[in-house]
Design brief:
alpha/beta; GTP Cyclohydrolase I, domain 2; Carbamate kinase; five-stranded parallel beta sheet; 12 helices; about 40% helix
């Protein structure tokens, strides 16, 4: 029986060494980066130190005998997997961070298995962390599953920009909901902020808010618009996470995106303009791998 403590903290070679062909290992250990991460409000806007250790098990090569650097996986591959993951945008969970690092490391066909440890150093006197082990075989199976799902009816993302949908025109809202619900392919809707955005902008001016504070008001207005459009229609589900969106679409329920949560976690350079519903729809379509993106309405307001 494998000792669980050794498995978690000593990176054992036991199961590797019993394989038909023992695997070699390259590693980067105790690499520290300062980033913003965490699901709690107290962790937003604050950089904290993360410590990374990545061990990549690879099939043996002749590099040791030939002294040929081109035959090995570079240590830079591991460092870049960490840095590229952090550059994608803000994350809530260490688990997500570890998964993305592992996936990047396993892209090289010479890689067989990866062990990733990510720790927070500033939350307690010691360290809080997560460790995962992922294999290339499992990663390939997961990619095949995703491809098979994508081969089915891909979702459509619709940007709703008609001001009547957000005024007191119940008939317009009902008609739009009926049109979306009647589509045969899964559909996710992005609703322009409309009068909610105007109210948020006015409140920001009145209170002298600028920058991040004013933008958070606008993001809140987008969520309000989503709920105003679909919150009382049981056929629709208002979602604020990618997991909820995917689940709704796979279940055949039309979804309306409340974007504040996802947009707050993006770096500024990756964040679409929250005032631009078509831009938000294009972002969501790329995020979901949607097959089509449409604009419903005469303008973007």
């Amino acid at each position: 029986m494998i000792d669980e403590t050794a498995l978690a903290f000593e990176w054992p070679r036991r199961d590797t060494d019993t394989a038909e062909l023992p695997l070699d290992r390259i590693s980067v250990r105790d690499l520290v980066r300062a980033v913003e991460i965490g699901a709690f409000a107290s962790e937003r806007g604050v950089a904290q130190r993360l410590r990374f250790s990545v061990v990549l098990e690879v099939r043996p090569t002749e590099a040791g005998a030939t002294d040929d650097v081109d035959r090995v996986i570079s240590y830079d591959t591991l460092v870049e997997a960490i840095d590229d993951t952090l550059a994608e945008g803000r994350l809530n969970l260490l688990e997500t961070c570890a998964e993305r690092i592992a996936a990047r490391c396993l892209r090289d066909p010479r890689a067989a298995r990866v062990l990733v440890r990510v720790e927070k150093l500033d939350r307690i006197p010691g360290a809080l962390g997560v460790e995962i082990v992922r294999t290339r075989r499992a990663a390939q199976a997961r990619l095949a599953q995703i491809a098979a799902t994508a081969a089915g009816a891909s979702p459509m993302v619709a940007a709703l920009t008609d001001p009547a949908l957000l005024d007191d025109d119940d008939a317009a809202r009902r008609a739009a909901r009926e049109a979306l619900a009647a589509r045969r392919r899964p559909v996710a809707a992005v609703v322009a902020p409309g009068r909610f955005g105007q109210a948020a902008a006015e409140a920001a001016r009145r209170m002298g808010l600028e920058g991040a504070a004013a933008e958070r008001l606008l993001l809140s207005a987008l969520d309000q618009a989503a709920w105003a459009f679909a919150g009382q229609d049981a056929r629709f589900v208002v979602t604020d996470t990618r997991t909820e969106l995917v689940h709704a679409l796979r279940s055949g329920r039309p979804a309306v995106w409340a974007p504040a949560r996802i947009l707050c976690d993006l770096r500024d350079e990756h964040r679409p303009d929250p005032r631009d519903a078509p831009a938000l729809a294009r972002f969501l379509a790329a995020h979901l791998g949607a097959g089509a993106c449409a604009v419903i309405g005469a303008d973007g307001g």
